[in-house]
Amino acid sequence: GQQVMQIPQYQHVQEGEDFTTYCNSSTTLSNIQWYKQRPGGHPVFLIQLVKSGEVKKQKRLTFQFGEAKKNSSLHITATQTTDVGTYFCAGSAAGNKLTFGGGTRVLVKP
Amino acid sequence: NAGVTQTPKFQVLKTGQSMTLQCAQDMNHEYMSWYRQDPGMGLRLIHYSVGAGITDQGEVPNGYNVSRSTTEDFPLRLLSAAPSQTSVYFCASTLRRTGVSGANVLTFGAGSRLTVL
Question: What pLDDT band is residue B101 in, cutting at 50, 70 and 90?
């Protein structure tokens, strides 16, 4: 079945630095979504990508969908303490269920 | 507009007990689902429903039952709780699973933390 892997599992970042988390699917996806879960909270939708090579930005967050639609990345610029949490990617092939990656847990050192 | 409401927030059970986790949404969403979240495992789909009267199994359905008698409610039943079912459970809904871009974005409830002793 469809598998979605995220790396790294943990990311310790110095405040002000940039980092990238990656999402890889075993199958070609029709779309990919990113969610953020604050500590003790629930996942909250951030963005959806549907086109090959698509890049979307939300303030300091840049999301990219790979040309082959099998991978995606989230790049955060100038990390802040408000970025703490777990970031999940979730992908679906046409007509199939959304499959979540294991998440990247981000810890920010002030 | 309450969104997705889950009850209870916390529950402790003894092995072998049964219980029901409640989930209700007021957004007229067709699709509802249950996930469990365990450390390092991400979110795994237990059961889902594409509409009233229709349910199907997800990735990890064993030990759980669901029903969907109304559009609004999607309860998750643990028939005989086991320590392996200790987890955080999230209910999530979306307007529809496929189709119009953005229509399959999930709205999550606040979660139910279950401990089975």
Answer: low
Torsion of CA B58, A72, A55, A30, to 10 degrees: -40
Cβ–Cβ under 8 Å, residues B98 and B91 = no
Q: Does A88 sit within 8 Å of B42, measured CB to CB?
A: yes
Q: In terms of DSSP bridges, do strands B4-7 and B112-116 run parallel, antiparallel, or are they unpaired?
A: unpaired
Hey, are the CB atoms on A42 and B110 less than 8 Å from each other? Answer: yes
Cβ B108 vs Cβ A43: under 8 Å: yes
Which residues contact residue A71 at a Cβ distance below 8 angstroms, ignoring those fewer than 6 apart? A22, A23, A24, A25, A65
SS3 A26: coil
- What is the band of B95 on the pLDDT scale with cuts at 50, 70, 90? confident
Between CA A26 and CA B56 the distance in angstroms is 23
Please tell me whether residue B111 adopts helix, strand or coil conformation. Answer: coil
Cβ contacts (< 8 Å) between B110 and chain A: which residues?
Answer: 41-42
Residue A96 CB-density burial (10 A; 0-12 exposed, 13-18 middle, 19+ buried): middle
Burial class (CB in 10 A: 0-12, 13-18, 19+), A103: buried
Distance CA B86, CA A27 (A): 31
C-alpha span between B31 and A33 (Å, rounded): 17
When scoring A23, A37, A42, A56 by the number of chain B Cβ atoms within 10 A, the one with the most, hence best to mutate, is A42
Which of B50, B53, B47, B65 is closest to B96 using CA atoms?
B50
Mean pLDDT, rounded, for A84-108 = 89
Judged by DSSP in three states, B117 sits in coil
